[in-house]
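Page 42, continued from yesterday. The earlier attempt failed because a stray header line got pasted into the input along with the sequence. Redoing it now with the clean sequence only.
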Amino acid sequence: MTTPPSPESRPVRLAVVDDDPLVRAGLALMLGGSDGIDLVGEGADGTEVAALVARAHPDVLLMDIRMPGMDGLTATEELRRRPGAPEVIVLTTFHADEQVLRAIRAGAAGFVLKDTPPAQIVEAVLRVAAGEPVLSPAVTRRLMARAVGGPADDRRSREARARERYAELGEREQEVAAGVGRGGSNAEIAAALHLSVATVKAHVSRILARLELNNRVQIALLVHDAGLLREDEDGAGDGRLR
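This time it went through. C-alpha cells are written below.
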C-alpha cells in the first residue's frame, strides 16, 4: 500500500487520465488551483499510465473507466499489482455498475461520478490521499448487493475462497473485519467491540497486510463474499467463522 503524504506536509500529487481532452482540461483547471492539490501530469489512455506514474510520481490517480486502447479497469489492475502504486479513484457515469465493482476489487480506493460538484472531487482526492476510501454507505450497500449476486455455482465458489482467506484472521480481527463489512467507521467499530479507536486502526492495518488487500472496501467485499453477515438478519451475526 502507498503511504499517503500528510496534507500539512505537502500538497497531494495528482494525475488525471481521461481520453476526452475537454474533460482533462476541465479537471486540470478545477483541480490544479485547489488548495492541497498539485496537478503533476495527465494521460489520455490506460497505456500511458505506467510511464505517467514513473515520470510524475503521483499520490493519487484520477482515472476514467471507459477509454480506447487500454481501459481504466485494466490499467488499475496492472498498476495496483506494483509495489508503491498510487491510489486510484475511478471516474464513471454510473453509480454502481459491474465495472465499478471490478475496479474496487482491483484495488481502486473509490469512485466519483463525472458530474460530481468540483468541491466534492477535491474532497475525494484529499480523503483518498489520507487513506480513506471514497464510497458512501449507500453506494457501498449497492456494490455489496451486486457483489454477492450471480449464478449459484459462482457464489458458492466465491464464498468458499473468501471463507478460506477469512480463516487466516484471528477472532478479534474477524470481528473488526465484520464491522468494516457493515460499513462501520473505526469509532463505531471501537464502540461496538469495546476497543480503542487506535486498536481498531491497528487491527485494520493487520487485516490489510495479512490478506494483501488495498483498502477497507476490499475488506467489506471479502466479508460479503464469505456470507458472514447473513446471520445479522437473525440478530446473531458477529462475523466470526464457526
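Notes: The longest strand covers residues 37-43.
Reminder to self: strip header lines before submitting.
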